[in-house]
Amino acid sequence: MKSLILFAHGARAASWAAPFERLRDASQARLPDVAVSLAFLELMEPRLPAEAARLIGAGCTEISIVPVFLGQGGHLLRDLPALVAQLRVDHPGVAIKVAGAVGEDPAVLEAMTNYCVSAI
Amino acid sequence: MKSLILFAHGARAASWAAPFERLRDASQARLPDVAVSLAFLELMEPRLPAEAARLIGAGCTEISIVPVFLGQGGHLLRDLPALVAQLRVDHPGVAIKVAGAVGEDPAVLEAMTNYCVSAI
Fold first, then answer.
1. Of the candidates B77, B53, B57, which has an alpha carbon nearest to the alpha carbon of residue B67?
2. What domain count does chain A have?
3. A117, B68, B81, B107 - which has most CB atoms within 10 Å?
4. What are the φ/ψ torsions at residue A93 (nearest 5 degrees)?
5. Which domain holds residue A95?
């Protein structure tokens, strides 16, 4: 079984999660044979190690992680690689790959540009 | 003169700013008669109050602020409204409007979904 984990920052305000939940649901609708879930770096649950362990326990053998971050700061340069390195130690039989930040994608940039331009 | 300020979080890592700079440049190219600039909440310069003051000093009378955030957490629920309220006190002759978070836009969600789905 394959899984796709959308990895987001987390926040104290519950409202923070809403667009990530929409993103998860929209991605799941497009990938009916993949387990799509959210995991957070901090402040919200589930955290990445627990969510990955849950998926692996359910039979997942391949995990793709997409950082739902706008840019590449310390969380993606240091925190996520450390978490993924530990996942690979803890689950050596599982293939784990990590995509670039969502905000670095050219089509996402174009959609954001359209939105910014429309706000004037 | 109108201006569009793209308001982002900021981070310690200089690499964080790159997609926001691309967003600024792409928006500026689409809005040649508008002053488009970036401002940060914390950790990076310029901060919003200083950037707004600079634009107003240069003759700007209308400012649109777009929060380049994925979700609506405490920074958009509390910090940005407080900053904007102070801007309105400090610059009573300037029209200031604030858009919703970039990540809440349906077309941005769709582009992010496409990216996430392609990562599997």
1. B77
2. 1
3. B68
4. -90, 5
5. 2-118
Interface probe with B: pick from A64, A97, A108, most Cβ of B within 10 Å: A108
ipTM score of the complex? 0.96
**Mean per-residue pLDDT over chain B, rounded:** 96
Residue of chain B whose Cα is closest to the Cα of A34: B120
**pLDDT (tens digit per residue) in B3-48:** 999 999 999 999 899 999 999 999 999 999 999 999 999 999 999 9
Percent with pLDDT over 90 in chain A: 93
CA torsion sign for B110, B114, B115, B117 is positive
> What is the end-to-end Cα distance of chain B in Å, rounded?
46
List Cβ neighbours of B81 (8 Å cut-off, separation of 6 or more). B98
Element (H, E) at B23: helix B18-30
Instruction: Find the CATH number of the domain harbouring A64.
Output: 3.40.50.1400
Scan for tokens 């440049």, then name that residue: B25
- The reply to whether residue B113 touches residue A30, judged by beta carbons under 8 angstroms, is yes
pLDDT tens digits for B72-84? 889 999 999 999 9
